[in-house]
Amino acid sequence: MARKTFIAGNWKMNTNLEEATKLAQDIVAAMGTVTDVDIAICPPYTNLSEVARIVKGSTVKLGAQDVYWEASGAYTGKVSCGMLKSVGVTYVIIGHSEQRQYFGETDETVNKKVKAALAAGLLPIICVGETLDERKSGKMDDVIARQTKGAFTGLSAEDADKCTIAYEPVWAIGTGETATPQQANEAHVFIRSIIKEMLGEAVADAMRIQYGGSMKPGNAKELLAQSDVDGGLIGGAALKADSFFGIVQPA
Ligand code: PGA
Description:
By secondary structure, this protein is an alpha/beta fold. The protein is built from twelve helices and eight strands.
């Protein structure tokens, strides 16, 4: 089944308002009419409203980097799905390894966030991936299976259809070290087999699985050529319009 390539830029904790405005404008100018690849950019919360204004009317969609599952109330520092919707957000990254490593994200909180996002009409980009230790000690499959199952627990096929998975080996994130196309594809095939086991063949076949971890113009083509690599979640290389475009173009 043909899955439409999906490239998303994760700006992480980068860009003040002025920088975000410029970057979003440059991205829209370079690729705002591309229709054969789905494109999203995920700036920090503080820049969402302004970037929403800039991408409006283009084919570039807006994403957030995290969300909280409660709708409102006394949760200092948190942002709800409804708030994201209200400023024009389409996608939300959930379970990024940096959230898991530094901010106590667990498979349970990922699942709560995924369910809340879907209920609010947001499209989750769910991150999974092993650390170097986990890979070296042969626990990689267990970890990826546990994270994937955790994220999709209790979801209907219809809900799962709205999700994207990002396979991001932690050892490749921001390190300049990339999984080889073969390593990436093996992991993607494995993740797809978990989805098939949980939700059936049709959902598994349609599920887009992005690769993330030092993807850049120089390696994107080969990674994206793999049978089960359906896009990329891009960190560092998404912070300049020309390198981001260098990934979108071969896609
Ligand atoms: P990177 O980050 O492209 O800078 O490795 C990817 C990510 O963490 O989403």
